[in-house]
Amino acid sequence: MQSAAWLLDREISVSSGDWLRKSTYHTPLKRLKISMLQRRPIFPGVIEMNYQAGWRIGCNVYLVHDDRDWGLIDIGYTESVDEIIEMIRQLDFPLLQCRALVATHADVDHVQGLAKAKSILKAPVIAHPLAVESLETGDRIKTFAEIAAQNVHLDMPVVKIDKTVVDGDTIEIGGQRLEVWHTPGHTDSQLAFRMGTLLLSGDNIYRDGSVGAIDAHHGSDIPSFIQSLNRIAASDVEWLLPSHGPIFRKDNRLLAKTISRLEGYLKLADFGTCAPDWPLTAEWDRELAEGRFPNVQPAATAQTA
Questions:
Q1: How does residue 303 score in pLDDT terms, banded at 50, 70 and 90?
Q2: Distance between CA atoms of 96 and 98, rounded to whole angstroms?
Q3: Average pLDDT over residues 153-168
Q4: Mean pLDDT score, 219-245
Q5: Which end of the chain has fewer surrounding CB within 10 Å, N or C?
């Protein structure tokens, strides 16, 4: 009798012209010809699943691999897990060779599917220590799964974190080595991963110069954000592989413009308690203490009937 592992690696997807009809069954390989997909790597050892599919599935999901072993950086929403894993199977990556499921941070659009992916792939989940509580308790506020004012009400399945990593650690996936960078700002647990001249840069910056959402509820910190962006700018990495949108060559002019914009937020109320100071309040305190009133021009004499 064949083992369960044999069946897992030989689950066949029935397709009829369109992408993945989602019907699956098990059969010995010798009885059915399997239609495999051609791998479309962005860089050697790196496949991004949206690019691979040719359409936007969700957040960027990076498959890092060598000749046989592989791992995923982020997974996206639960509803996308089956599609992503089916693609991986058809790319001829043995499912039992998945060595890591890595969370760049604990936002729902990146990690909602972790529990399901872990149950299928039996791979360890890796995250920063500051992401553990949110992921293991399913914190729907800090993960952005619950935003009542915008009618966002998403599930956040709990998932056990098997290993934590901090700045300077290395994640090994077969022969590939990812240097861990802790780049807080967007969230307190935000990670990036250096792989040679590539930086899997998370939600730090996107090709249009925007950055990951700044919000006190999930641990944003503007001074830390600026420090993280300065670190990226000062590095000799050549390509940024963000968690949303297209991959792009590192452009220090773009980074400088973004950093300058965030520096302006340090003393403005735009992002509430994420800013360390709001000088306008001190100015108003002084004016009140001095008895200063607004410099209002005398109103025109009211016309009488």
A1: low
A2: 6
A3: 98
A4: 97
A5: C
Q: Which of 158, 93, 97 is nearest to 122 (CA)?
A: 97
> What percent of the chain has a predicted confidence (pLDDT) above 70?
86
SS3 string, the chain, reads CCCHHHHHCCEEEEEECEEEEEEEEECCHHHCCCCCCCCCCCECCEEEHHHHHCCCCCCCCEEEECCCCEEEECCCCHHHHHHHHHHHHHCCCCHHHEEEEECCCCCHHHHCCHHHHHHHHCCCEEECHHHHHHHHHCCCCCCCCEEHHHCEECCCCCCCCCEECCCCCEEEECCEEEEEEECCCCCCCCEEEEECCEEEEECCCCCCCCCCCCCHHHCCCHHHHHHHHHHHHHCCCCEEEECCCCCEECCHHHHHHHHHHHHHHCCCCCCHHHCCCCHHHHHHHHHHHCCCCCCCCCCCCCCCC
What local confidence, expressed as pLDDT, does residue 269 receive? 92
Closest CA to 274 of 224, 201, 227, 231: 224
Measure the CA–CA gap between 251 and 260, rounded to whole angstroms: 14
Question: Which domains can be identified in the chain, with CATH numbers?
Answer: 1-35 (no CATH), 36-289 (3.60.15.10)
pTM assigned to the model: 0.85
- Each residue of 234-292: pLDDT tens digit? 999 999 999 999 999 999 999 999 999 999 999 999 998 988 999 999 999 999 999 99
Cα→Cα distances 181→32, 74, 171, 271, Å: 45, 15, 11, 25
Length of the chain: 305
